[in-house]
Amino acid sequence: MVPSHRAREAALAIGGVVALLLSPTTAACVEYIRDEQPAPSSVEQLHGPITVAFEEPPPRQAVFLALKERLADYPPVLADGRFDVALRTYSLRREREEGVVAARGVPPVSEAWAGGGSLSLESGWAFGHVAVGGELFASEPIVAPSDRPGTLLLKPVQSGYVVFGRAYAKLRYDRQVVTLFRQRYDLPYLNGQDSRMTPNTFEGYSIDGRWPKGRFVAGYVA
Questions:
Q1: 73: which of 109, 170, 195, 220 is 20 to 30 A away, CA to CA?
Q2: Is the pLDDT score of 21 beyond 80?
Q3: CB 144 within 8 A of CB 107
Q4: Mean pLDDT across the stretch 63-86?
Q5: Three-class secondary structure of residue 142 per DSSP
Q6: pLDDT at 35 over 70
Q7: What distance in Å separates the CA atoms of residue 162 and residue 184, rounded to the nearest whole number?
Q8: Residues 6+ away with beta carbon under 8 Å from 35
Q9: Helices (H), the chain
């Protein structure tokens, strides 16, 4: 029996998590994650792949401090919320050899200049147990010749797009946090591969649990 496309995707995702836990090459793959973060100031701040992958990012300094201070008297769901704006532009020109063009059926030249970015919003904890968040991504053409598609900066016909790359809910009880639906993972074998205008995101369901002397992570990626 030939497995379906979705079944193969699920198997690959599960295999990636198993490889993360068992493979001796994990230490090398986690360098991808470290490259996305500020360099540690000492060796003591270096951790293993599981710890690094599921660490909460440090809070950023608020730009509008007056607004942040004004919200301090509101419930945590508002006072502890986070709103980020990330701007991005990308210009890419790629020329291909004749053999590659013939074999893959791709244009000899792919070229585009795109602009866009993302808007993200995450609430604080409502009643101490529930938080929601999302991130809207956009990429619009600045220069995009119609006969030179294939840069992966835009949709296939050199047109722009707007998409909710992340839309999730978090449930917290004691030190256990469950995250549901569309989110981003920064695991060695399952990550954003953030090399164009928009990173990869995934529909996933995970739980991150902690005890005084231990921690576990489990999940399923659809």
A1: 170
A2: no
A3: no
A4: 84
A5: strand
A6: no
A7: 17
A8: none
A9: 5-22, 26-29, 31-35, 49-53, 65-70, 76-79, 98-104
